[in-house]
Design brief:
alpha+beta
Length: 103
């Protein structure tokens, strides 16, 4: 299992209504059959010292494997990525993560 972090930096406007009402349902619809297990969305509210959050929104989808994620992107990535300008001009940063096991 992997976790993909899709992080939208603070600064550019972000239409959360569109994102939650259209974009994330599109992601779930297209990628669930291709190994997407879950996709949580979190909204940045600040830093521990009271500063602004460096990321305004993060999507945290989990996939059965990195290979499954790559296949999902190959199959429907163009459609999903083409939808991004409908909710923000922010340039997302994407990171693939493994789950660490505690000793």
């Amino acid at each position: 299992m992997i976790l993909v972090s899709v992080m939208y930096p603070t600064g550019a406007s972000f239409d959360m209504g569109y994102y939650l009402g259209h974009h994330m349902p599109l992601v779930r619809e297209r990628w669930s059959a291709l190994g997407l297990h879950d996709a949580k969305v979190v909204k940045g509210v600040g830093t521990p010292d009271g500063g602004a959050a460096p990321f305004q929104v993060m999507a945290l989808p989990t996939f059965e494997s990195a290979d499954a994620f790559q296949k999902a992107v190959a199959a429907h990535g163009n459609e999903i990525f083409a939808d991004i300008p409908n909710f923000t001009q922010a340039q997302a940063q994407v990171q693939i993560n493994d789950f660490a096991e505690s000793p």
